[in-house]
Amino acid sequence: MKDSYGRKIEYVRISVTDRCNLRCIYCMPEHGVTWRPREEMLTYEEIVRLTGILAAMGVKKVRLTGGEPLVRPKLHRLVGALKAVPGIDQVMLTTNGLLLKEMLPKLMEAGLDGVNISLDTTDADQYAFLTRSSPKTLQTVLEAVDAALSYPQLTVKINCMPMRGINEENLRDLADKAKDRPLAVRFIEMMPLGQGCGFEPVPEDEVKQKLGISGTMSEKTGESAGGPCVYYRPEGFRGKIGFISAVSHKFCSGCNRVRLTGEGFLKTCLQSSAGVDLKAILRGGQSPEEVDIKLKSAIEAAIAKKPKEHHFGAKETEETAETRKMFQIGG
Known about the structure:
This protein has helices at residues 44-56, 75-83, 100-110, 124-131, 137-149, 171-175, 204-211, 278-282, 288-304, 326-329, and strands at residues 11-15, 61-65, 90-95, 114-118, 155-160, 184-188, 218-220, 230-234, 240-244, 257-260, 265-267, 275-277. The protein is 28% helix and 17% strand.
């Protein structure tokens, strides 16, 4: 499945909930969040059905997101069902890690291929400030990282958002998590979307300087295919360091993904409101055969109109501006 610019769409990020057990300052307000009614959210059966149609059209990779996906009950059952969809090669998960350690055995039994753990600092007080939680919470996340690494078949990555004046001096300690372990630590540039608009990102080049990453000190790996992250392996590192810089190092020309929100809207670009409401078709009342035909046609039409690139920093029109918050999109 290709869009009108020749980009091959092989990856879908699926938000299974807008709820979360943390309140990270750059993602979600501390109070006053209005949750989507549960009946408006896609059921697991609906997610599997839509994934089957996407897989038949060329999608091979699925990532489950939230909110925090592990707050949705029995997520391992969805992982297992998605792994059984013909054409799906990988099912992965992005999580804050709070519930991961206890749920890993069932997730691994279901066939989970990879996990990304959000972790912006190794300082307990700083972590508590960023997540509006207790300093003790950090230890739970660090234990989840160790538990994930105990499964050799599981790809484990840490995602960090470098923020000016908040965690920029802790980045080296976080990067060192990959020094002696088969772990990827990725530094993701803050995008001006939702709560993230209130924070200044630390540019990729500056993060590299802080970490001592340069052409002479690091080996650029060949592991960036199929995604926006550019990886380096600093001298003496067992793991690797990655950079995802959507604004300063735009990678739209190689975008291979779409997003399915928890309420069933297929987004073709993170910034744009472009896409199609698949849930309305799915619950439209026609026969299963008719619904599948309509879903395929709607997906094809949406992919054909996938924007060429994002325009973060430019003035949005009312028709194209995205009003959903990051926790409602799934990142």
